[in-house]
Every structure is written in C-alpha cells, then in structure tokens.
Write a structure and sequence with these properties.
six-stranded mixed β-sheet; globular; alpha/beta; 9 helices; 25% strand; 10 strands; four-stranded antiparallel β-sheet
C-alpha cells in the first residue's frame, strides 16, 4: 500500500482516446519497483474481450503487479499495455476506471449503510443503480430480509455480514458502473469451500453475459473455473493452459 501512496502521480490524458472494444495486450513490458529485486522484462501476452482467464502463480510471481499496471497504479518502464488496441496511457483515466472494476480478497467495507458501501463503486449512483447491481451480485434478497434493507448499517468492515456476503457486497460495488472488465484478485481467499464455489460460479455467469473476467489466484482449483490459465513466476510468463 505504501508503494501506491508514495508513487509518482500518473499523467492523465483528459481528452484522450476512447477505444471501441476491450481486448487487453501487454507488449514487451519492462517494469520493476524501486529498491526491489522483482522485475519484468519483455513480458507479452493478450486477453481477448469477453473471455475468462486466470493469472496463476505464487506470491511474488508478478500477477498482482499485472493488475496494478493495467489499472495504471504504476506506468510501465518499457513497452506498452493496450486496451482495444489503444495504449492505456492515451485513454482518459476516468474512462479506464469506468471499464475496469476490481474485486479483492480483503474487502474494504465501511461503517455505513449497505447502500453507501455499494455506491463507493460509482459516485452519484442512484438507488436504482445500486439495487440493479445488488441483484446482479445475488445479494438483493438478503439485503431486503434485513429490518432496514439497504439502509442497514453494516458496522466496522461489514461486521454483521458473513465472508460470502461481504464479498457479494464488494461485487455489487464493482458492478454498479457496469464495467466491461472485472479483475478478481484472490476473490475467494477468505471464504469457505461452499462460498468459494458460489462466488466462482457467479463470475462464470458474468462471463457468459459478456463480461471479461480476469481472476488472479495462487490456487489451481480456483483457476479451473476459467477457460484459460496463464502461469507466472518471477515476473515471467511460463506458459498457458486452455481448458
């Protein structure tokens, strides 16, 4: 986290290019963190839009760095990352973030209502937008079973919710701006096996409805829910499996 907080400010092209589609390509990427042994050199791979792909590797393999670079938390040192054939540095940053949402293992929920926790995903989202996202995330019925519904205060970090329910609120937050691409970074890491199955089946359904799903995981069993597995180690792509 400190790396991101103290990283250089990323330049934004407010009047940049808006791509027509959402194919992702990493082209001869070189990247390293300051004062760190980790580095990527000439990394290349592509992910077609509306596919479901897993990035697999142990901690330090580079898979989370890939999501950081795609979201432009950092810019590459050499090469380029493209979305729909356009260098992401030439895409307005708000446009990039409208297209890509992330669901993380450690869900950050706030001591506020369920409605406001979902609204974090889209500033100015209407109640209708929030209900629509909650229905897509299969959490609406549970919310309506609560005495105050969407006005229920969930406590510190969603204390009144189970792990699976917290993850579904996080997914609703990710879906509220209707992104084309969903990055799921270790999305089942804190869940029991039944909740893991439900969440991964849900990502499969989103894929079938036309979303691009990229699952970042170190667990082979989670990766098997996808159609294609890219294996990473020490910042290098070792190979891939097509399922």
């Amino acid at each position: 986290l400190s790396r991101i907080l103290y990283a250089d400010v990323i330049p934004d092209k407010v009047n940049g290019i808006v791509p027509e589609d959402n194919d992702i390509a990493f082209e001869n990427i070189d990247f390293f963190y300051e004062k760190d042994e980790f580095k990527m050199e000439k990394l290349s791979f592509s992910i077609a839009e509306k596919t479901m792909t897993a990035l697999v590797g142990e901690s330090g393999s580079g898979k989370t760095t890939i999501t950081n670079l795609l979201l432009r938390f950092y810019d590459v040192h050499k090469g380029k990352i493209t979305l729909g054939g356009t260098d992401i540095r030439d895409i307005p940053y708000d446009e990039l973030l409208d297209r890509i949402s992330i669901v993380m293992q450690n869900v950050q929920l706030f001591d506020n209502t369920i409605e406001e926790n979902i609204r974090v995903g889209k500033k100015g989202a209407t109640k209708e937008d929030i209900i629509k996202a909650a229905k897509k995330a299969r959490i609406h019925d549970f919310i309506m079973s609560l005495p105050k519904g969407y006005e229920t205060d969930i406590g510190e970090n969603g204390g009144i919710l189970s792990g699976g329910q917290r993850q579904r609120v996080a997914i609703a937050r990710a879906l509220v701006n209707d992104p084309a691409i969903i990055l799921a970074d270790e999305p089942t890491g804190n869940l029991d096996s039944q909740s893991e199955k439900e969440i991964m089946n849900f990502f499969q359904e989103l894929h079938q409805k036309g979303k691009t799903i990229v699952v970042v995981t170190h667990e082979p069993e989670v990766a098997k829910y996808t159609k294609r597995i890219l294996h990473f180690k020490d910042g290098k792509l070792l190979g891939e499996d097509v399922l």
